[in-house]
Design brief:
single chain; 129 residues; alpha+beta; OB fold (Dihydrolipoamide Acetyltransferase, E2P); six-stranded antiparallel β-sheet; three-stranded antiparallel β-sheet; 4 helices; 9 strands
């Protein structure tokens, strides 16, 4: 189960992982392994544009698999500063290595929003229900 929710990452209740860069305060946001494995292969990713702002809970990206469509919701207030073009071009990379292949790099607009995220132990407990 440690591989499902690695130490050093934070997790939302909406299937996202977050890795905060303590040096510049930015964060990478991606799809948790459990969700990436639930679909056979992502085939399309509609990613946001750089400079876009999202409030906590707002959909910021849409993902499609063969018989599934869903969105990723912002785990906190954030400003998009980069998009991982590799996963836009080949979304199935997320399925292969969900904790290596991030979707967006963001500026955390409100650090208080990070307090609502779970550590690996909490996420393991939450997602095992």
């Amino acid at each position: 189960m440690k591989d499902d929710f690695p130490e050093g990452l934070l997790f939302s209740k909406e299937n996202c992982w977050v890795k905060v860069d303590e040096n510049d305060g930015s964060a990478l946001v991606g799809v948790i392994k459990k969700s990436a494995e639930a679909v056979n292969s992502f085939v399309f990713l509609d990613a946001p544009e750089k400079g876009s702002r999202f409030r906590e809970g707002e959909p910021f990206a849409n993902l499609e698999a063969v018989k599934w469509t869903g969105s990723l919701n912002a785990p906190f207030d954030m400003l998009i500063i980069d998009v991982n073009q590799r996963v836009v071009d080949d979304p199935s990379l997320i399925n292969k290595e969900p904790y290596k292949e991030w979707v967006v790099r963001v500026k955390v607009e409100n650090k208080e929003g990070l307090k609502g995220l779970m550590n690996s132990r909490e996420a393991e407990e939450y997602y095992s229900k």
